[in-house]
Amino acid sequence: MDQTEAKRRAIISRLKNSDISAFDDIYRAYASRLFGFALNLVKSQKDAEGIVQEVFLKLWKNREKIDLHTSFDSYLFTITYNTVVSLLRKRSSEKKYIDYVQSIQIPRVADSSVDELEWRELQDQVNSIVDQLPARQQEVFRLSREEGMTHAEIAEALNISINTVENHMGRALKFIRSRLTDHHSLKVLLFISLFF
């Protein structure tokens, strides 16, 4: 066990024993990373802040159950992801969230090594791929993912049928997935599982 890992386990062990200073250390080490991760999913600073607060509340409540022999990073990022999904499900009655909730899949483990810069690079890569889509597919995709519009709202705005919107989205997503998976990166696959 290297020195960093030993230090990490020592802090987590202190947390399990209700050491508030260990909790503060963990908050300082992870809060900004978890915020960035949540923000990429919910696209709202206020919601992301609330999610991070809830994650640390859950961490404190369940501190005695933490397993020192599993990845603490994955543990925290998984709690964050599940908290995001719970929030979106609660809002599933609001039209602008319905398609988004249906489009995301829960990964088993969130790769905490995907930092903010890497997420931005992946998003830039997606934007570049989206630019290659036919004009109408691109328009439909951007209205859905960037403006948060439902398929029904897009159909009304563009004066096309919902079925046509769904066909455009299906083709666009298939094209984006195929281009991203060409890279066979674990981080790329995680990105796809979260957003596509």
UniProtKB/TrEMBL annotation:
GO biological process: DNA-templated transcription initiation
Domain HTH luxR-type: 130-193
Keywords: Sigma factor, Transcription, Transcription regulation
A GO molecular-function annotation: DNA binding
Pfam families registered for this protein in UniProt: Sigma70_r2 (PF04542), Sigma70_r4_2 (PF08281)
Highest taxon listed in the record's lineage: Bacteria
Matches recorded under CDD domains: Sigma70_r4
Name this polypeptide is given: HTH luxR-type domain-containing protein
Similarity section: Belongs to the sigma-70 factor family. ECF subfamily.
InterPro entries for this protein: RNA_pol_sigma-70-like, RNA_pol_sigma-70_dom, RNA_pol_sigma70_bacteroid, RNA_pol_sigma70_r2, RNA_pol_sigma70_r4_t2, RNA_pol_sigma_r2, RNA_pol_sigma_r3/r4-like, Tscrpt_reg_LuxR_C
SMART domains found in the cross-reference section: HTH_LUXR
